[in-house]
Amino acid sequence: MAAIETLGELRKSGYRSRPVKQEVRDNLVRKLRTGEALFPGIIGFDETVIPQLVNAVLSRHNFILLGLRGQAKSRILRGLVDLLDDQIPVMPGCEIHDDPLAPLCAACRSRVAKEGDRVAIGWLPRESRYVEKLATPDVTIADMVGDIDPIKAAQAGLNLSNELTMHYGLLPRANRGIFAVNELPDLAGKIQVGLFNILQEGDVQIKGYPVRLRLDVMLVFTANPEDYTARGKIITPLKDRIGSEIRTHYPATRHNAMAITKQEAWTERADAVKVDIPPYVREVVEEVAFQARADRKIDKRSGVSQRLPITTLELVVSNAERRALTNGETLVVPRVTDLYAALPSITGKFELEYEGELRGAEQVARDLIRSAVGSVFTGMFEGVDTRTVVEWFDLGGSLPLEDSTSAENVITLTKGLQGIRELAERTGLPKGSAAPAVASAIDFVLEGLYAQKKISRSEERGYSAVESTARRPTRREEQAIDEEIRIPSGKKKYYN
Fold it and tell me: Where are the extended beta strands (E) located within 45-165?
């Protein structure tokens, strides 16, 4: 079709224009029939959000995605671009991408009337048909809809009510495409009122003058439920005109969360070192977010973004990379203790309740890491006897390990610790693994025992026995401690 260069050729080709909502619907129907992926890269929404989204598009609705931060709302909206045609014919130079077969603006109508089938046409790719605006309180109606340009009117000798005097805003420039507004409640109420006609009648009015453009646009929005009271709200008449309200959510399972983080996190470093991330490290990173979302010290209304495990994993890999480079190792294998080097990422991803403020963000983050390690370790080592390792510490053994300790030194220092290698192999460590992988597995076992309160750890002594002033838990109490890790913190039982 791109070979067609004039209006006459376009008419002879049999091309028929479609409203953008019908175009999106038709392409969605085709994808459903052929079994194509609808929203590549969106994980964990297959049984919840995606079906509702499909129904809204099939119904030709304008819709809003409602959810907490970090729930892929913007990414979903940008995925709608794949439901547009590869390209559509437009009037060259027209700010609102007028349809050559049915032009809206006066200038394009005049050109068609004057030149007829000889009018040149252009082709607009799908990527240029998506317009996104982040709503902020300082956005004006002129930014969104447009304004009258008196200078243009004076230079052309036109009346201010003439369409040729208009300066188009973002919304008219999205004509024949998709217009997305992120964080809709942040938009001032009077600006939201300006969207009424677009949603219901499909036209736009400029500055009170009798200038009306019947735009063809699909309107989609995002909003955070917390913003309804924190910074603004969606006014009721506008909300009533939005066809579908679709709720998003955080990953329901650790498996889905790991898949998202693996897809989004930058962990493949293009250097001389090779990065190998053990599965249990990935699990612990994700579990930190799950623990945070359930922790009573963290504000649940604000949410804990999926960006937390993504940026945390990147810092974990970077800390392991720093250690490998310092010690001359060519294989980078992160350890669970590398999560403590990722505290700058974790503490910035949640808001604290009053109880959390008293404890401090960094200490809350450290507690989350310990709980996450304990949860993953308990699931992997449930029913496994770890008393041999614990007794070594009870007899006075200690391990002064740091996150900068080389893999070879970790193995050397733990060589006399009976049973540690057997426990490390239970993590799925293959026979003949390289030293960094072995050191990482040993580190996980030690941190897991520390999380279960079976051994102690301090900055000065490293790993050691639990202080003698604290009574050794009975087997029943150890099971209760294991169970505590699996219970959301709002329902924890504490034992002394």
Answer: 63-66, 87-90, 122-125, 130-134, 146-148
